[in-house]
Design brief:
With about 100 residues, the protein is an alpha+beta fold. Helices cover about 35% and strands about 10% of the residues. It has a domain of about 55 residues.
Length: about 100
Amino acid sequence: MAGNPIGFRGPWGTSYPRNLRRMVAGMSEDEWVDRLHTRKTRPPMPWFNLHAMSERDLRAIYRFIGTLDPAGEPAPEALPPGREPATPYIPFSPREPGSETAER
């Protein structure tokens, strides 16, 4: 919940896990619930799962995160496709069936 400077790179560009501790420190509980029920983000954030969560559960997550220090640094900004990240990253690329190399 403190973010990570390791990116996830795919057709969308490169995205980074956000520092939720810092994010929660800067918004109200109602803003948190609204954001998680309406926002669509880049991978790896499972926004579609957050949209399906109950308001009660989202409020419980907000309150839990609020008990933690707002420690850590902000995550790097997302990069558009074609820009090479300066940080380490995990490649997420679609593969055609049968394109994997055979194990030896």
